[in-house]
Structures are given as structure tokens and as C-alpha cells.
Here is the input.
Amino acid sequence: MPNPVYAWAGVRSDPTTIAAIAAQYHLNDPIYLQYYYYMADLLHGDLGISPVSHLPVLQQIVTYLPASIEIGMAALMISVIIGIPLGVLSAIWKGRRADFPIRVFYLSGVASPPFLLALLFQLAFSYYFKLLPSSGRLSPGQSPPTHITGMYTFDSLITGNWTDFVNSSLHLVLPSVALALLTFSLITRVTRSSMIETMDKDFVRTAKSKGLPRLTVIYRHTLRNALTSTVTVIGFAVQLLLSGAIVIETIFFWPGLGYYATQSILNLDFPSIMAVTLVDTVLLVTSTLLTDIAYGLLDPRVKLA
Here is the structure.
């Protein structure tokens, strides 16, 4: 394993500087002592100092996190808005000609590597057709909106800065769509399977035999019960978004946690890597908790302990 001290100090650093940096980060101490120091600092809200940027890691996390939340929320919204209706239509049209292209579409999303699709999107929509920007959050020379949440689309919308809102929204399209392709196919497939299974239930047959309108049977009786499986898989989709963000943010130079993690790994910035891992874990646990709560609201038979 490479010695991170040489990466932090530089290849021309003298032994005294290298020894001082190693002592500062407790790299010469046993593993259990390093763990103790880390946990003691963590309990005081101290994630350490980045040996690369020489800035507090917590400060950098606060800087990069809003961009990741922004792209993650956009990707999840796209996945849900596209995935659930396609899953419903595919279930209704099961075995018909219209079902085939929908299945090909979402299965293509599963089979396609996200980095390849991201590069193809850049090539097609940015370089050939010049419809959308290829990287960053704003165009060069464009001033960021007034800082409220750190998410440019929200901040510009709240402050009524329509120039920044349009510009930041255009920059958000390609990376969020590329990231959404990781999850929309999963949501579509699960919704389709759950809808098909629910349509064979006795209560759905009873609703049909009572002469209820077809849309009422589909959306009020079938879809509502089928969504429990979809909500469960949305929690898993957050895991895919967190892992996929590393690739997508790097390709689109999107300054989020994924991009920050990539740069930290390349520079052997261990305090930053640990902080990103910790934040991703907290986000994952939180999404799982929210998924369980939503599951309980959709299905009254489920009681939250």
C-alpha cells in the first residue's frame, strides 16, 4: 500500500516534514489507537483536516453535499415519474405488442453501463446537437444565486433569479437523467411485477365484478396495493444513486460528494474518504427509515415498532 504521507507532503519533502505529518495524523500509532483518536474527534463533530486542501473536512462536506442532494433528488424524481407509469402500462398491456417496447426500454437501462450512457449523452446532446451543457452547475461567468440551501435550482427559484434557474436547470438535465437510468428500470420492473401479481388478487376481481370503472380498479385498488413493493425498492434505489453518483459526477464535473470522493481517492486523502463514507452511510440509513415509514402509511397492516 502506498504511503499517503509522500502524497500529502510531496516527493521532495525532507524527512522532518514527513515525520511531522505522520505524527499529526497518528499514522505511526497502532490501528486501535488511530481508531480511538478518530472516534474521539468524531464525537466532538471533528472530521479532521484534509492533508491535501488543508481545510476542515466538515467544511468541504458542507460545500459539496448540496450538489449531490440536488442531482440525487432530480434523478429519483425522474425515475419515479417515468418508472411507475411505465410499469403500470406494461402490466396492463402484458403480452401485447405495446408491452414489448416498454420491456426493451427498461431492460436496456439495466444492461447499459452508466458511464457509457453518460459519455454518449455528452457526445450527442452537448457536442453534436449543442442542446445542453456538458459539465458543471453553471455556465462560465454566471454568478451563483444567493446561498440558501446550496442547491442552485432551489436557491434561484426561491430568490426569483430566473436567469440562474434556467441555467442551472439546463446543467442539471444530463447528469440527472444519466443517473436516473440506474434506477428507473428497477422501479419499472418491480412496479410491473407487483401490478401483475395484484391484478390476480380476489379483491381486484371483486371490484371488477361490481362494475367499477377500469381506471378506478387500476389506480385505486390495484396500484395502491402494488406500490408497497415499489416503495421498498425505492429505498434500494438510493443505494444505487449514491454509488452511481461517483461515476456520473466525475464525468460531468459535477461538484458533489461523488466528485469529491474521486478526488480524495486519487490523492489518498484518507480523512475525506472516511467522511464521505460516513455521510453516505447516514444518508442510506435515513432513506431506509423513510422507506419503512412510507411502507407503513401505504399498508395499514404494517405496524412500525
Residues 5 and 18 are 6 Å apart (CA to CA). The chain has 13 helices and no strands.
